[in-house]
Amino acid sequence: MLPNLPEIIDGLPNISGWEEEVLSVVQRNEPVFLHRTNIRLEDVTAVFAIALHMHQPTIPAGANGELISNLQYMFEHPHIPDNHNATTFAYCYSRMADFIPELVANGCNPRIMLDYSGNLLWGLRQMGRGDILENLKRITTEATYQPYVEWLGTMWSHTVAPSTPIPDIKLHILAWQHHFAAIFGWEALARVKGFSPPEMHLPNHPDTLFQFVKALKECGYRWLLVQEHTVETLTGQPLQNKHLPHRLVARNSSGEEVSITALIKTQGSDTKLVAQMQPYYEAKTLSKQQVGNVLIPPIVSQIGDGENGGVMMNEFPSGFKQAWYEMQHQGGGTSGVVGVTGTEYLELIEAAGCTPHDYPTCQAINQHQIWQRVAPENSSPEAVTNAINEIKQTNHNFHMDGASWTNHISWVQGYDNVLTPLNQLSALFHEKIDPAIHSNSEDVSSKTITQQREYREALMHNLLLQTSCFRYWGQGAWTDYAREIYQRGEEVIQHKF
């Protein structure tokens, strides 16, 4: 019997303590959508899938320096530029729970994928906006709406994977799964099979990518969303079949290999494309393609911020609804070009006879240059490091910082004042706490360590410091926030462990 998880424990979000139960739930293999879907592949020519990404960072900016949501800060400081949008943002976090029931009641067949950071979910509860969470529960837990809505997992604190310390990648993934289960329940968590990386940021260093994919699979994920230009074919070319699922191959410097299914998010102005339902209109130009022995509908996949920018705040609602009504009139919403969720699509094509080994393969961008120099049978950390250094000497554009939805922003260059403390806090966390956990791994007391307030507080500060916003928004107030979180985290770890 699984316990009912508390959402808040001692004033902190529930991000640890039930690792064994979480992993038992997320590793379930039964179909999620296959028995509920009203889509039949033989009736469909092409499909599209859209996701909405929602996030607000946690910052030490409460009245007395408390950790609060940036959304709360926006409400409390309405005269700072852009903060006047706080009310609209809050509505955007809730409105899909109004749109989906309305469309379903009117005979449409809508689909949406939702990606909410742990920071945002906690912040909504902190600031007394449980009404938003209750509204979202309706479309998450009620059987009526389950065919239409898919939640995507993500990193709890919106960290970008390439510059996240490797030991913390799985901690972020598990923290989000804990938190989500505490809010929406175990059955809802069991249905979360797709993953949305913050900033669509994919590691390209062989060892980081390997650990990222390995952690995703260990945490029950079947697929992830990948930005088109963050990957390449195994021969180093741009993708030729971006509207088909791919098998993302990750090989580490020791020659070990792991793979996971990837849905390719096409390039473009993300929010504008989603707001204007461009994936639907692009899908109308496509026709079925052969994968293995099966003819399947291609998929156009896209994600955009769910709240940010005038186009999402103002244009999206009418564009979203208009597209579903158009589909209803043209084929009942179940034939021709239709919307799907990612897991629904993969379950449908795999039930028709596709297997992940039939999908085109891809790898992280720039890896071909490494594997040209390092044969699998001769692979070693030293050989990979030497290859990377050789390439950097002849190709100044080559880097192992990963790639994201944009080419003009780096989450690494110029941010030593954040990355150095970030890595120091992570190292201190693992140095002080890991031995206690591992020494008790055969003992029930090991579980109690991750259930202790001290552990949860230390983990929370470690994860919060890795939030991408402390780099994305540039030097100044945001890097000051990071410094404050580092100091508090260091104090917790040094004095309580």
From TrEMBL:
According to the UniProt entry, the coiled-coil residues are none
Q: Which Gene3D superfamilies match?
A: 3.20.110.20
Biological process (GO) annotations held by this record are:
carbohydrate metabolic process
What the entry lists under SUPFAM superfamilies is as follows: Glycoside hydrolase/deacetylase
Q: Write down the InterPro entries for this protein, in alphabetical order.
A: GH57_Enzymes, Glyco_hydro/deAcase_b/a-brl
Q: What protein name is recorded for this chain? A: Glycoside hydrolase family 57
